[in-house]
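Page 37, top half.
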Amino acid sequence: MKYLMILLSFCLMACNGRSVKQEEKTDSNMTEESIEIPNGSLTKGEQDSLITVLSPYLEVDTAFTKRRIEISGSLSKIIDGAIDIDEDYTWQIIAHVDSVIKQCINHVQSNEPKQLFDLFDKEKKNIYAHPSNTWKNEQNLNNMILSLYEKYDRSSNKRLLAEKVIELYEISFIHIKLLETFGGYSHPSFIPLAKSLREWYLVILKNYDKAIELQRQICERIEKEETEGRASENYGFELMKLSELYLANNDTIRMDSCHQILQKNPYIEKILQEYNEYKKTTQEDKQKVDISQEFESLNCPRVYIKYKQPINGYTVKVLWLPFTDKSGYTAETGNAVLHFESENNHFYIQTQSYRDTAVYSHTHLKDGDVLFWNYTPKKKGEILSKYSPFFFSDVNFDGENELLINCYNGGSKGSNTYEVYKIHPYYAEIIKDAPFASLENDMTDFDLTNKTITCHYPLSSFESITHIYKQVKQERMNFGELETDYKFELVKVDIHNQYTDSKEHKVYIKDGYNYKLVKDDKASVNQKDK
């Protein structure tokens, strides 16, 4: 692993030149837009976190550094245009970064974030070229710096923020590629980082060429890693995204090439086949009333969807109002009204989070379009479905299924959130009580035996809290009749915090009407163990 860090630091220095020895030339006539950072604005937690992520760069392994010099010398002979890294220069880099990091920590302790960021922007390539810049240290530093950039950024177009984010992400991308090249493995952060970079280039900078290049790399990686290759479901959806980018960039030739490959993908082929069947019959089934003229005041397309299969005994129809851009491109999500009808019941649900993966084959829907879609069911063993647009699950252990609307990517770290509804005769009631208002598929555990629900909340890189809720059976009188009801109580709270030089672990349990502190551990953190 250390030798891989040698390669990263060497490449950064080769790109940056001998930045320690060179003065930075600026044009006094240029006025550069900047993020306003007032001094005295760092919180105690932010100061502790910054010191934690900066401190590892003060540690240097002497033997490793000497080996670094040897390998850098060998690399300079095989990399075109690379500078020759001598021993004196290497130690100069280390000494310089040591001084820079100490200045950064002094700025943090003095609550001078403006001076801190000015220094970091000037020296970041030297910092990332330091031998202690491991992947873990780099990500901890990046996450902290980026969270503060977002805190202070007040610009309307977010372009400056995007440029700063992209610069750090690009350095991490180089780091990943070097780890993969010389480590002989696929890094798990490659695709997530490539997707993040793609969105910054696309949404903020409108740089379609860079977004397309990153999406191409995502498709190539999935084709290489997944056993089904081009026939996999993930490859099909990502290739469809690439096709959409080509279309937006007016590259119809490459878009058509993507479509030819998509037609051979069994998952996408099924969707396209259904769409072609719909196109053949659409003229016969088209409504006689011109809906777009009748409701001209609503400036969004109204799309009518019917699911071909009954779902939990219900026939489901949807009036969907998808978000669209000026070109008429249909987004993945939008407002919707869902109608559920069975032999014994019917009700409506209104949601702002309707999304179905079938929309990938309908990128330019028009007002009044009528669609007939196959339903995507839950996978076996799933309680909270990842891909179903809506589904039924018994999430409160009462023996009856609740209805859940899927809010895709609405939670922390890319997880899904859900709207949970209790079904009654002729209406459905949304459940807003904890924990049902904050369920996330990647952050929630269900214990069917003990009837508990555990919710994990990552507050930051150094703080997390876990809530455990338990089902409590209650009885109530309803017009003279005794009814059984189930509520959930917060019975345990587990808190983990890490500061500059210590870790805290607190546990509270429900004790009557109060919460009792049953664990309060504090432990010092050895600087070398961080």
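Page 37, bottom half:
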Amino acid sequence: MGTRVQGPGAVVLALAAVVAIVLGGVPGTAWVAVPRAGAQPSGGPTTTATSTPGGTGGSGGGGAAGAGSADAELAIIMDASSSMLEPDEGGTRLDVAKRASTELVESLPDTARVGMLAYGTQESDAPENHERGCADIRELAPVGAVDKDRLRGEIEGLQARGYTPIGNSLRAAADMLSPDASERSIVLVSDGIDTCTPPPPCEVAAELADEGVGLAVHVVGFRADEATRAELECIANTTGGSYRQADDAAALSESLQFLAQRAIVEYETTGTEFQFADTADEALYVGQGLYRTTVQTVSELNTAAVPEKFLRVAVPEGHRAYVAVTAVPRIDLTDTGGGEGINVRLTSTNESHHTCTKDVASSQTSGGGWEPPESTVLAFAGQEPGDECDGTQFLVAAQFNTAGLGAAEEFEVEMSVQFEPMPGNEVGTWPEGHPGSAPDAAPVEISSPQPVAGGNSFANAAEITEGSFSDAIVPGEFRYYRVPVEWGQRPVVTLKTGPSVRETNDTLYGAIYGPVRQQLGSEYISYRQEGEEMTVASDRPVNFNNRNANVGGERVSIAGEHYLAVSMSVFGNDVLGVEQPFEFAVRMDGEPGEGPDWEPVNEPGPTPSSSPIGTDAAPGGEANDDNDDDNPSVVASAEEDSSLPGWALPAGIGVILLILAGLGLWFFSRGKQR
């Protein structure tokens, strides 16, 4: 099962793929090992890969994508035994291995923690030299932050001379790894069997496996014969690692494109930690800003059986609240649908009076590189002057259901809470709402695009302006960008991609979101042999009075930072970790106009509280339990809950002032008498 690439390219590809397994979780530039199952590079043979069911490798579509963490450690064992002096294309087998290893070092992410050792470099393989030769194991670089210059120099200086002490080398490599590392991995490259047993290498592998979870040995067999392959596969299988066979030198050029395979950079939630309450009585207040949590979903076809989770919001008088919940489904790169999906339903109820309104919003989002995580946005107005509905008494109920989309499990959730102040009579001087029938926007010309690295969430979106840009993405990934949009402007984005780097049917998806994360427009393009282009735009210019035009107008009624999200589809068992370049250009149609100055707060919100939280609460800090005097809603609540009559507080203050005045006169008169 899998592919077999031959020759130096095979070694490069096999090394890259195996090392990808253990570096798959390094944020930002991690690797992912996902071979092209059932397919062959054009014009060349293939690389065989095997792994145990419980191992970290695999030949399916997912491999170890997203596994591991930034403190994962890797030790690479190089074979410099005398058999590596055998002639090969371009020199010897060692020359091929040197070139492959140097390519590997060049491709390592800067965040990788990697070390290297080699055996057979100093002692000959003469029979009388057996004891010294089997101890000939030299550390080329200790495990730590990757030092590419040192590794390149050490690799270049390798000379093949001696024995093949695989078992002893495995022990030495294990000793290089920190016991505190989240993942410990060894990559072994060898062209022959162990010539120094005992200890038998498979028994050593079993010892290492018994040391605990997190230590796996991945093996590359270079021109390995049947006996060698059996021994090397035993090492990999015993530790839950992967074995990869590399043969002759026919497909180096086809292999090099896969050296940059990396894991997807997953959505990163941002904000103050909070928890939904299981009952309304236990619900805490949240304030303005960003929050994050995890939720346990259910899988119920009967939506009435989906349990509700609760929180509270105190909407300041004269404001409108927006609660945007972004559920982040798990991504399964082995699933052509991309993995799990989730339905989110939000309901707000004002509990202060039975005549107060009840608002409902719901949406469905699915993960895995088809569409970026969708936000369910609930909007509701606070207390107006003379209104009997108390704005501090809003209860928000949330339901999370995976029925028909996947199994019930725990998901990460990001939430944005915003309070928009309602303007006064100046609303009448602003342009009327647009009905949303704007003609299709003309494509934006892409000219001299500037490189930009998109963020991995709304909060981490890369800042851009009007202009042309370039980026790259791998299947299952999301890229986010933020761009300012003025009143009266209509955001237009054109995205363009070249032929599929993976040489398969790929799909690129693009969407524009408003400042409170409501989707304004979306498009997708499918491509393979030739590049394609698409243009996405809102259906009207951004105008405050759009909210009064029709139901769809509310989404396009807030100016400020808008978001562009790009994602790439996942299809079957094709190789996944290859970056697909794309270009895009941004243009604002329309002249800037008039409207309020308010923009959402994209900072961590105040700590959840049992008391209402005002808009002046410090972002990311304590709420108002210790600062109630600064929060009018809390002071009002304290007055209402007091057992004293309403006149008691001002009367008490008056008495205190009279006493202070009397003391002042007494002090002054004493001073004059002296």
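Margin note: The longest helix spans residues 648-673.
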